[in-house]
Amino acid sequence: MNVTEKKMDLIEHFWDDVSSRGNSTALIATNHLGEIVSVSWRELGQWVATVSANLSDKMSALGTPTHRIGYLSDNSLACVVTALSCMNLGVIEFPFDHRLPTHEIDSRWKSIQGLWIDLVEISGQLRRDRKSTRLNSS
Question: pTM higher than 0.70, yes or no?
């Protein structure tokens, strides 16, 4: 590769896969209810675009510029979508293990500061989007 060639970054590869792989399976994950779900590249791409837009709006509404998003991570589908959305926005994600004591999370987050999000809200959004997609395809 010569100096003028640009390598694709990870998020560009992601969007390329969304575009080229469409309805093939992107991942199999556990949702917030503990159910195992299969997600297509198209569906994953739609979710990342929607969550990215929502996170961008929330960051703008803070009034103070931030490039950090924190949340309690339980390795669910919402965590995967949130991580990809943060990468899509070019922000730093801080996923905290949900098993940590609250005082430990609070103390760590206080030194980081940024937008704290609730994955229950994102899980609900994914569930509504999935239900809407199924209704529209019927």
Answer: yes
